[in-house]
Amino acid sequence: MFEQAALPVAYDALEPTIDTLTMETHYAKHHATYTKTLNELAEKAGKTDVPIEELLSNLDSIPDETLRKGIRNHGGGYYNHNLYFSTLGTDNHTPTGVLAEKINQTFGSFEAFQEKISNLAVTQFGSGWAFLSVTPDGGLVLSQSPNQDNPYSEKTGNVPIFAIDVWEHAYYLKYKNLRAQYVSELFKVIDWKVVEENYKKAIA
């Protein structure tokens, strides 16, 4: 069974950047629904014991088209939201250590990285995500994905370590149509220590 990752902070902990109602609605309703529906579909497909990363990377192994599409959407929503929520926090808002070094080496500076991934998030047409991922050779790469797709379902071979959610339910209650403002403010509540741990696991 796939379990919804525990929220690392209280619903109101990220005020005013992310308001309490958005956190409650996003986590307890949207993310919970993705998790519940994924479990129902995975049971029908006989895939409840497959790690989500493996399941999304091998969607072609599901012969039933309806189940395959449902698991791509709800499995992607489950995985993406687990990653997104796990990196939110009230501390460590600037990368340090090996991840900071790699970001500087790859993008020139944290500010340059922030500008590039923010642009991907803001320019993603419709709903979707922007990702920071680790390549098979240990490099860092940025990408954008529509809907609930991600580097696993897109078969890139990359491992996502940080994600920006640009579905309207992630920001519309507070920021209305000002997606760029939400993306800019979001960096105030990212726990880069968690992202660094994700990076270390990906290169281990």
Would you spell out the secondary-structure blueprint of this structure?
Blueprint: H1 20-45, H2 52-57, H3 65-86, H4 97-107, H5 110-123, E1 128-134, E2 140-146, E3 159-165, H6 172-175, H7 179-186, H8 192-203
Antiparallel strand pairs: 1-2, 1-3
Structure summary:
With 204 residues, the chain is mainly α.
Structure in words:
By secondary structure, the protein is mainly alpha-helical. The chain folds into two domains: 20-86, Fe,Mn superoxide dismutase (SOD) domain (Helix Hairpins), CATH 1.10.287; 97-203, minor pseudopilin epsh fold. Helices cover 50% and strands 10% of the residues. The protein has eight helices and three strands; from the N terminus they run αααααβββααα. The protein has helices spanning 20-45, 52-57, 65-86, 97-107, 110-123, 172-175, 179-186, 192-203; strands spanning 128-134, 140-146, 159-165. Strands 2-1-3 form a three-stranded antiparallel beta sheet. The longest helix is centred in the first third of the chain and has 26 residues, at 20-45. The radius of gyration is 16 Å and the shape is globular. The two termini are 26 Å apart. The model has no long low-confidence stretch (mean pLDDT 97).
